[in-house]
Design goal:
With 330 residues, this protein is of the alpha+beta class. It is 54% helix and 7% strand. It contains 16 helices and four strands. The longest helix is centred in the first third of the chain and has 21 residues. It is globular, with a radius of gyration of 26 Å.
Length: 330
Amino acid sequence: MISRKKLFFIIFSFIAVFSNLFADSLKAKDVVAEAQKKASVTEVISYLNTTIPKITDNSEKRAVSIFLASIQEQLSLYTDARKTYASAAAISGGDVAGFPVKTNEQLVIDAVRCALCTGDFETAEAYLTSSVRNSKDNHIISYVKLYTQWSSLCKAETSADVKEPVEMLKAYLNVSSMNELYPVILLTLWYITGDNSYAQKLKTDFPKSMESLIVKGDVQLLPVPFWFFVPKTGIAEQGTGSYSESATVIVSTTESPKVKFSKWQLGLFKSEANAKALCEEVKAKGFDSSITSEKRASGTTYYIVIVKENASGDVSDRLKSAGYECYPVE
């Protein structure tokens, strides 16, 4: 017969075990609340990376992983974000109250987007040929179709290589199931072809969309590899901003000091031959151009066309007038 003292000890032991199990089951809301107390974003990311493996409940772990991936993507840490989205997609768990509601298929699509932002079309296509291609969700299928064409643009080496994906994107404008993506399709076509009719349609049909703000000049595209490397068949000219279009601009007689740059980056290429062609082209127009190379962690070497500033400090204006986009590098 068990004594009262021994019975009390057994009950206490069970309580202690269950208390520890409960303590180990971290909640997503508590983890995020603790992360928000950190002094910097770097500390937030480090804390989340350390804490996620300790979360035992799959749904809670999945929610925190999605939260981390969104931070990484916002900071342009696309490779990290891609891995985190893919990791979250592999977790079998439900949604958590107070956190974004996303299916695992949507998380795979998020991972594809991040892969394309780094120019990693191989990984993007691997994800796209997974189970999402056979999704029953029309929203997912729409993105599979769009990102498949983006992947084709991403691996294009010459302007001739973009012809087929451009024709497919044009065809999608006549497909009703793709209507939720019309703004981004129009933006892509405008950017690749330079055809202003796509920009005009964006401003007319989707005036409040982010894509419309980009063509107006109110928002700038980040120079991520996808947008920067893809060959173009025309020059997409951004507007100067809604304010300048709708208001009288008062010009001050006192000039603001300008930041001076000594070099301008004209283009990045995976093909050295394409870089040399552009370098010679701008050199023939009177610019002091040269080529440098940069090997990325992925092992891919990119060839960069650089144009030196002149004594007048007007190289960037002259390049833009000649139809070339450029970015300051130093």
